[in-house]
Write a structure and sequence with these properties.
This protein is mostly helical. About 55% of the residues lie in helices and about 5% in strands. β3 and β4 form a beta hairpin.
């Protein structure tokens, strides 16, 4: 923990030296600068609900559930691209980054599924189905031995210039999305 004044002289090499983990330069710097936190809200919306339920404190869970409903609604309102039915990557200084990044789409599906389960609101179910269709039809990399593209650009071109799999991609966000969606009973034929 450093004071604001101490952070002014921090160099890139210093910021990349995390004492516990190594996640690569982009994720480490994005996390340190809070660049990627805006769209982690949709991830937080379902994880906070799950954590509140585990605590088995009904009053606390009710407060958390009320808050996460607002989180999901705000993400749907401000970060969901209705033209292609996927979440923007991020928004910096009021400018949306139109790339559709793999982990954001995985967490969006779970966040909207969680919101639908809590509220029964059709807008969230529609978002789940549209999000799944986007992942299946656009983000899934059909090349042999592959899984999802890292990103899809604004013009719809898949980003094949990134690794097919890395520690946070396949085993964490993608795998967790698939297992959690199945655990919750989401099936393709529900369409």
């Amino acid at each position: 923990d450093k004071k604001r004044e101490e952070l002014q002289g921090v160099k890139l090499q210093d910021a990349l030296k995390h004492p516990v983990w190594s996640m690569g330069a982009k994720i480490t710097i994005d996390s340190a600068t809070m660049m990627n936190k805006g769209l982690e809200i949709i991830e937080a919306s379902w994880l906070l609900d799950k954590a509140a339920d585990v605590l088995e404190d009904e009053a606390y869970a009710a407060r958390i559930h009320a808050m996460t409903k607002v989180l999901a609604a705000e993400v749907k309102k401000h970060a969901y691209d209705e033209t292609v039915h996927a979440l923007y990557n991020e928004c910096e200084r009021g400018v949306d980054d139109p790339q559709k990044i793999w982990w954001v789409q995985a967490e969006a599906l779970l966040g909207f599924l969680n919101a639908w389960e809590k509220t029964g609101e059709g807008r969230y179910w529609d978002a789940v189905l549209a999000q799944w269709a986007y992942i299946r039809d656009v983000l899934a990399d059909k090349r042999p031995g592959s899984e999802w593209f890292w990103y899809v650009s604004e013009d719809g071109a898949p980003g094949s210039d990134q690794p097919i799999v890395e520690p946070w991609k396949c085993p964490y966000h993608n795998g967790r999305m698939c297992m959690e969606a199945l655990r919750r009973g989401l099936k393709e034929e529900q369409k």
